[in-house]
Amino acid sequence: MVAHGAEGGGGRDGSPIVIVSNRGPVTFSLDGSGDRTYSRGAGGLVTALNAVSRRQEGAVWIASATSDEDARVAAESREEPYEVEDLRVALVEHDADAYDLMYNTLANPLLWFVQHGLYDLPYAPALGDDTRRAWEEGYLPVNENFAAAVERVLEGNPQGGGEPIVLVHDYQLYMVPHFLRERLGEGPFVSLFVHIPWPDPEGWRVLPRYVREGVLQSLLRADVVAFHTDRYARNFVRTAREVLGVEGDEEKGVVRYEGREVWARAYPISIDPGEFEELAASDAVREQEGPVRDLPGKLLLRIDRTDLSKNVLRGFQAYGRMLERHPEMKGEVTFLAGLQPSRGDIPEYAAYAEAIHKAVEEVNEEHGTPSWTPIVLSMEDNFPRSVAAYKAYDVLLVNAVRDGMNLVAKEAAVVNEKNGVLVLSETAGAHEELGEFAVTVNPFDLDEGADAIHAALTMPEEEKKRRAEALKRQVRENTIEEWVEAQLEDITAYRKARG
Amino acid sequence: MVAHGAEGGGGRDGSPIVIVSNRGPVTFSLDGSGDRTYSRGAGGLVTALNAVSRRQEGAVWIASATSDEDARVAAESREEPYEVEDLRVALVEHDADAYDLMYNTLANPLLWFVQHGLYDLPYAPALGDDTRRAWEEGYLPVNENFAAAVERVLEGNPQGGGEPIVLVHDYQLYMVPHFLRERLGEGPFVSLFVHIPWPDPEGWRVLPRYVREGVLQSLLRADVVAFHTDRYARNFVRTAREVLGVEGDEEKGVVRYEGREVWARAYPISIDPGEFEELAASDAVREQEGPVRDLPGKLLLRIDRTDLSKNVLRGFQAYGRMLERHPEMKGEVTFLAGLQPSRGDIPEYAAYAEAIHKAVEEVNEEHGTPSWTPIVLSMEDNFPRSVAAYKAYDVLLVNAVRDGMNLVAKEAAVVNEKNGVLVLSETAGAHEELGEFAVTVNPFDLDEGADAIHAALTMPEEEKKRRAEALKRQVRENTIEEWVEAQLEDITAYRKARG
């Protein structure tokens, strides 16, 4: 790892690196005495991008300003990136209405729902003027804002020898490659990393024409479009072929567009195991261990954002069915569901949260006893408790309808102390990497889910150990530095191929 | 046409032809004096298969017995096909429970919903024992029953020189190729024609493992798997590749499976224009012309089965939006929606019918006047009235979420007398053939729908005429005989290639 960092100075050929993501690595605020202070962000993407940033001292990270003090930093960092700890950041202030349209209408729910296949198509979406307005007055200006910030950073920061490398991240920023090419031409290397699933062409077609074609045309002006799995990369090539009618080879991961070659590649994202090991040993987490340990029987765990893609309902239903079929398990297991509240102001999410409460009640009423509650639901944001539960689970349920990667599976595996078994949806991105060590489930099949939970709860110790160790090894060996390095290697290869 | 029929005696090399479909060309009953009588079936598939049957005198058509008298014919036709008019039929009697499980649990809604993308995936389907039972005790035995009937027909009917040709039809019979190969080996040529959309792999994955793999493995034991569009054929090749991991080339339409080559081909189905011209001139239809003609203003028409795939709600919503934007159109157009009742005992269909009534009320309350009802809804089975409306529409709306082909678009175009404009969903199978003569809509986009309806209603006469004539020509020139002939040609080519 030191060796990577020590290469210094940018990409492999010394090119300056710019990272662009909606959410940034730090948020600024004022402390009690009116001085500027900051907190570093958490979350999988930020952790991963920290690793990119560490890879090179001079890297600049561009992100949205999200607080008043952020806005002041944004103004200051127009000239030169703002330095904080090991980071150089340039924040971008957006018009509040434009940002709201981008984030709350176009990205969530529309792109999120389409890419996870969450719409009830006979009824929704009913696209219209709202969508067009969110696109034209929200998504496009916010994305152009980011491209302008990249241009400013590169102008003010001509360090490094080669052409710059611009690494754009996720579904809020699909139009950034388009605006970058408009401003900077073909010189910079541009990649866009999609951290959520890429659907098949039939799924993508649900979007209005100007979005589905606009996004694809922009992504094809990047040099590399990156995903967490080969499947999503293939889906992307197919989508480009079917929707735009361009030439593409899904096995080679190549699309030809306007005389250029665009690569579609998979780089499965990882976590920082050290970070989770430290967390697991922290006082905050230790304090939460008691309540988790006190739950009766084995611990069946799920930790998720409360999202329609996570398949929370069928998880409870499958567990209920398991209890029906195996009444001897009653009192021998508790299902702890830690569901972080999310997007509660979107009606679909409010309805989903309600359905979750109802599903929990049904199972608890049918199977519970005075001394045993089958499902313990915790709908709060308590990360230390989640990590305490990571350490203690016997079975971890990750049964997403669809999921870009799912980092819970990786985080939890690293710190688990019980040789816990992973029950993993075949449609979670993590399944490509971890499927062979998990018990695989079709997320739509309650009986398969019930069988999988039972098999995991009753798995012989030796088998559990073998799987848990292999899982830990797999997560530890695919380091986040390798995730970064694989991308940089492809950049070198791409530039070489392009000549 | 006569030339085709005159070739006689079977396939191009004289092979006997067996047609297998769930619904047959005739239904038998007893008349008042206790004598056997029959009625010939209607509907697109039956019309098309009649053309196959006409292609060769000796062809035998195997179908399910659906009445008591059918059951008696089934018993009689075990030895030898039953002859009626120009047809030779062999009816198959199924165990009533098995048939119910096949039809009402496995085929509808499960396969129908998956192939049209109609599930609200965060909530449904919740697969379980019911599904497995429907598969094992319904779908498999009914399909095996059909294969046994094919075997009996071929044993008792060794006419023709070459190996027999077995043409299996649609999603109720996916497992017939499997059972045919078990019984008859590799000799017979077997094709299976899928008349509904074939989804992308992500869509197909919603099925339980035993169904999604079982069906694919069976289809890949056929020689040709046929669809109405190239897109569905490509989706099929992708699905085979992604779900079974077999080798396939979607551009060539070839899958390699167990050392054999399977072709995926598109043959867009047609109608019998003569049949509709006759109908249009019939008294039954003429009697219905008055009520259609009396509707105020131009006629916007939709004729559909009441199915969640037809996108009835958004059709009304788009029309409402058009009236909002163009108040000058009020009173100048009436939307006649002829919706044939369907599957009312399935809860999703009952809920959809209710939503339809509500959507109609909303538009009529908002925009209607004492002298003008914006939408006239007719939820009854009145085919003569539909044909009367076919003749009279100014705009025909076909905005399906997804549709295998959609024959309404073709039937109506042939008999329309008003140079009516077709507004056609890009996700209807018919769009590959008819899209260039239609006004295309994204079925999920209400604003695009509103604009399309308005553009169609106000299109200059010359432009309407040009399109309507091209549409009629296209439908008339792709005759149903050509549909049959293209398949027989490929059979010859396939056999030649296989050597």
TrEMBL record, chains A, B:
It comes from the Bacteria. GO terms for biological process: trehalose biosynthetic process. GO terms for molecular function: alpha,alpha-trehalose-phosphate synthase (UDP-forming) activity. It holds the Pfam family Glyco_transf_20. InterPro entries: Glyco_trans_20 (IPR001830). Belongs to the glycosyltransferase 20 family. This is Trehalose-6-phosphate synthase. It comes from Rubrobacter marinus.
